[in-house]
Design brief:
- With about 400 residues, this protein is mainly beta.
- Strands 3, 6, 9, 12, 13, 15, 16 and 17 form an eight-stranded mixed beta sheet that branches. The chain has a five-stranded mixed beta sheet with strand order 32-30-27-29-33.
- The longest helix is centred in the first third of the chain and has 26 residues.
- It is rod-shaped and about 145 Å long.
Length: about 400
């Protein structure tokens, strides 16, 4: 083949035939019009099927609800023009113009342009129907549908989704807008173990659940789906440090809120009984006040809510009350041991209680516990520290901080 194209005579022959074809196409009509030359040739025809019909209308105020989509275009004229038209396919147009018309059904003659001037054009059908309807814009709330909500990680729960924006605008013909029953956005939470944030398209549905294709603004919304880890509600606790100034007593310490929610692995939070919300320095307290504390996150816990609490401390003048016959209990004794207080089986102490007047007024002897712990002691005589327990926000002390005891084995 390369040898043929390189041949001088081959190129000349091909050029001659191309020139002959072009000459024939251009002059065939002149030849046909001359007497005695191609007397049997007549104008030719060509048909364009399913030509799209364009409609010009006031798009800002109206929408098309019904129209003829396609027409048939019949062309007649010189064969050369028809052949050239088929080869070049110029940018012709078939249209109707209803820009000066209002709402309603209109029947109009189909117009055309940009066809070769020497071709006659006929359109089937010649008249078409176009229905215009007022355009409306209506705002609809977006509903979020959660897919696979039962397939989140074990122990986790799906919270209420948050969507932004809350509403979208649907713009279409009045009758089409009326078909919109709900607007939805879908989020799949399968396997989720943390909050999901997605930008997702909105979809329109009619009353029967059929999806509608209408203009919506915006076309997508931002959705956040909280995924909550296992949690548990436990009370808060304030750790106290330091000593109160002389003559001052705590009437009440209140945490607001009293309970907090801890989130994290189930085996961690199930072992928690309280949440330490912060430390209260008693040495700095001289008057009633409210302190805001940022709750520290305990080890192994994901988060705590709320993140801050208010600690209200009520301060009053310290009063005293004496209790003279508080029995001393012995704890930690072992079987087979006999414990006495210098030979006496019982012992009583005089204890001073210091606190706010209203707290002391409710205090009784049964609210106070004095005890000694002998769990770490061996047989023999010992001088042991007395420990005193009682209601919160009351200080207890005794003139006798230690007492003598004797531990003997009963088989001795």
């Amino acid at each position: 083949m390369d040898k043929l194209f390189n041949s001088h005579w081959f190129v000349k022959i091909i050029s001659f035939f191309i020139a002959l074809m072009l000459f024939t196409m251009v002059n065939i009509d002149n030849m046909a019009s001359q007497p005695g030359v191609l007397p049997s040739i007549s104008p030719a025809s060509y048909t364009l099927e399913d030509v799209e019909l364009s409609v010009y209308y006031d798009e800002e105020n109206y929408a098309i609800t019904d129209k003829t989509e396609h027409v048939q275009v019949n062309l007649k004229g010189p064969q050369s023009s028809l052949t050239l038209f088929q080869l070049t396919r110029p940018s012709y147009e078939v249209f109707v113009d209803v820009r000066e018309r209002g709402e309603g059904v209109h029947t109009l003659s189909v117009q055309h342009r940009n066809f070769p001037s020497d071709l006659s054009v006929s359109i089937v059908p010649q008249y078409v129907r176009v229905e215009l309807q007022d355009k409306q814009t209506v705002s609809f709330p977006v509903q979020v549908d959660i897919i696979n909500s039962s397939e989140v990680e074990e122990g986790y729960t799906v919270g209420t989704p948050i969507v932004s924006p809350l509403n979208v605008d649907v713009t279409a013909a009045r009758s089409l807008v009326a078909e919109v029953h709900e607007v939805k956005a879908y989020v799949d939470v399968a396997g989720a173990d943390r909050a999901i944030e997605e930008t997702t398209p909105v979809r329109l549905y009619d009353e029967d659940g059929n999806e509608l294709t209408l203009s919506v603004d915006p076309q997508v919304v931002d959705v956040k789906v909280p995924i909550t880890s296992p949690n548990r509600t436990v009370p808060g606790k304030v750790t106290r440090t330091g000593e109160l100034p002389d003559g001052v007593s705590i009437n009440e310490v209140r945490i607001e809120p009293e309970e907090l929610t801890v989130y994290g692995p189930r085996d961690v939070i199930d072992r928690m009984n309280v949440v330490e919300v912060g430390t209260l320095d008693l040495s700095q307290l001289t008057e009633s006040q409210t302190i805001e504390m940022e709750v520290p996150i305990p080890p192994g816990v994901e988060r705590v809510t709320p993140e801050k609490v208010s600690v209200s401390v009520s301060i009053s003048t310290e009063e005293e009350q004496e209790f003279t016959d508080i029995p001393v209990e012995v704890i930690g004794g072992r079987d087979g041991e006999e414990i006495t207080f210098n030979g006496d089986e019982t012992r009583e102490l005089a204890i001073t209680a210091r606190g706010a007047e209203q707290l002391l007024a409710k205090l009784t002897e049964t609210d106070i516990q004095a005890f000694v712990d002998v769990s770490d002691l061996s047989s023999g005589e010992h001088e042991i520290e007395v420990q005193i327990n009682g209601p919160p926000n009351i200080r207890f002390d005794s003139a006798e901080t230690t007492i003598p005891i004797e531990i003997r084995s009963r088989i001795e």
